Amino acid sequence: MTSRLAIAGLALAATGLSGCVAAVAAVPLMAGAQVVKTTQDGKARKQSKREKQAVPRAGDVYVTEDGKKAQVTGLTALPPPSGAPTAAAVAPGKVPPEMQFLYGSGEASALSLQAYAALWRYLHDELRFRRDKSQISSVVMTRDSTLTSPKFDTCGKRPLAVVFDVDETVLLNLGFESDAARRGPGYDQGRWTRWEETGADKVDAVPGAAETIAAIRGDGITVIYNTNRSASTAAFTIDALNKAGLGPVTLGDTLILRDDSAPSGKDERRWKIAERYCIVAMGGDQLGDFSDLFNAKDLSTPARRNTTGNTLIAPLWGRGWFILPNPVYGSGLKGGMDEVFPKDKQWADPAEEKK
Amino acid sequence: MTSRLAIAGLALAATGLSGCVAAVAAVPLMAGAQVVKTTQDGKARKQSKREKQAVPRAGDVYVTEDGKKAQVTGLTALPPPSGAPTAAAVAPGKVPPEMQFLYGSGEASALSLQAYAALWRYLHDELRFRRDKSQISSVVMTRDSTLTSPKFDTCGKRPLAVVFDVDETVLLNLGFESDAARRGPGYDQGRWTRWEETGADKVDAVPGAAETIAAIRGDGITVIYNTNRSASTAAFTIDALNKAGLGPVTLGDTLILRDDSAPSGKDERRWKIAERYCIVAMGGDQLGDFSDLFNAKDLSTPARRNTTGNTLIAPLWGRGWFILPNPVYGSGLKGGMDEVFPKDKQWADPAEEKK
To answer: What is the maximum alpha-carbon separation in chain B?
Structure first.
């Protein structure tokens, strides 16, 4: 991943809500004497039987003296009040759909296997048989590149290397995300640091990653990880990579971490690696794993998406740049209605409009 | 897509909730005289000033006579009471992360471009130069196959074809999903039918699909769509495909729809196509677009995921079978905590455990 940011607006405001919940539950409980119980079938016998129950049950519907309906809730949490962020509120303990997809589905596994198969074919079938490897092109955009005018150097005498991101590219953070699913929305940097330090055995390799990385090394190509994981927890990251079958790595040579004071952008580190190696392929789950230009602040959500397909960048996907699926977090999870769905493509159910 | 089912548990129970909401809002409104207003800074002047306000504002915190705290809410909807399904409750009008990813991100666009590039390379670079095309293998599993023992026929004299699913494989249902995002969770078959009938101009091609499909046809290979869209709305689906640049199609030959009485499985239709054509590649966003065996009822979520990588199926991804990303709906969005996150990989933040 390029940077591990909280998805904007997912944090739940916790203060004051318990009082609000108590108030909801309290309506039928405290006002028991003043309400008339109704049921959908309206049978008197059933009604009187249930009125004797001391404790109303979740789902019971009451009518108050002033004619309003009230339903007993079993809620233990509420969405935050207006004014507080309200985006997603998946009940804690339920696995949100994007996590079911990435960590639980065969579909996401197949996407990863497909990406690694494409990477392997590119390296093994296309590059290996080139007689003059010095004419092979690096896939790192040069400093004077733009997204509409990407430029690349040839390899010269530098040894070949493949550069991967770590999180959700070669390594699945199963433990951290299981905790996040149980906890509900919201991201905490401190928790991520504790995860790096204590979760080394709660990870798994992305499907296809370990086998492909071993095969790349077998072909004599160096594998380098360029990650925003912190330099201060290096030993734990090395441990996690080894336990997932993705090692061995050498810190500072084949494992490049982020200094805590350094920016999250990866271009500078890529260019530094490119001084020593010819980077012939890159793998990542975020566009920032390929170029920081995708994260320019003035690039709108639709423009960012368009650059991947409508520029000279397009032919790189599956041919030097290899992307892994990650709908769970990251810089791609942005945009309101009109940015995600072009205005001229929005639709409203005609049956609803008639009402 | 293989079958367009509501994601289990997303439907909101609407009845009775308006009363519940009224009760929440009513606490501070009706009990205005009996509560003492508190503020975090505790300045008396500010407090008295705000007490004069006739209408409490969202976020205001009150303390009731019995010492409980109550916060004014601006909520207009609540999650359903316990007992009703509670999975996801994204505020309507906010775009949920899985939709931001699929329809709005450059990452998903890149995944699609990568899949179509792999498909093109497979057809154009690998199959086109085969001298004896009768020895090319079909990629449709034969009737006597199992997931652990997949079997394939050779092509013989049949002409080559590529079979695609339609929805979220070649066509993005931008209009329908914009409506779904505005509306919040819940799927309605009637709404989908109205969408098929009225949304033909509110779609777009999946990135890479239109160009690749045109190129496949240019290579003399037939393109066939095998979809669960209804036969009764055929004209609208043809219209949508044409408008997205994915046509032309011939109903019953290169566009195979589902009869309303027929099951959602696609194997029978695949085998029928395979009588006339040699299917050398398939594209889909659901495992059921490749074989119905993935949807066997006795296949657990983890087992289903494992079959994609740990069987003889694995080499097919990117080499005959091409999968497109879709974390928004479908048969991959299943599983509770222990199915999505293996028990031995679950983790809990040690800082929280100490509390």
So the answer is: 92
pLDDT digits (tens, 9 = 90+) for B129-176: 788 888 899 999 999 999 999 999 998 999 999 999 999 999 999 999
Cβ contact A340–B90 (<8 Å): no
Which of chain B's residues have a Cβ under 8 Å away from the Cβ of A113?
308-309, 314, 317-318
B312 CB neighbours in chain A (<8 A) are: none
Q: For residues A29 and A62, what is the distance between their CA atoms, to the nearest angstrom? A: 11
Q: A209 to chain B nearest CA, in Å?
A: 11
Angle at B226 (CA atoms; ends B223, B229), nearest 5 degrees: 130
Among A260, A316, A252, which Cα is nearest to A289's?
A316
pLDDT for position B91: 65
CATH number of B95-339: 3.40.50.1000
Greatest CA span in chain A, whole angstroms? 91
Determine which helix (DSSP H) or strand (DSSP E) holds B217, and give its type and residue range.
helix B209-218
Indicate the pTM of the whole model: 0.77
Strand runs (DSSP E) across chain A, as ranges? 36-37, 61-63, 69-71, 160-164, 171-172, 204-205, 222-230, 255-258, 278-284, 321-323
Q: Tokens representing A114?
A: 């497909």
Digit-coded pLDDT (tens) for A105-135:
999 999 999 999 999 999 988 888 788 888 8
Q: Where are the domains of chain A?
A: 8-71, 95-339
Task: Name every residue whose Cβ is closer than 8 Å to that of residue A286 and which is 6 or more positions away in sequence.
Answer: A1, A2, A165, A326, A330, A331, A332, B107
Report CB contact under 8 Å: B90, A88.
yes
How many inter-chain contacts (A to B, CB under 8 Å) are there?
Answer: 412
Q: Is B283 helix (H, G, I), strand (E, B) or coil?
A: strand
Q: What is the ipTM of this complex?
A: 0.77
**Chain-centre distance for alpha carbon B72:** 36
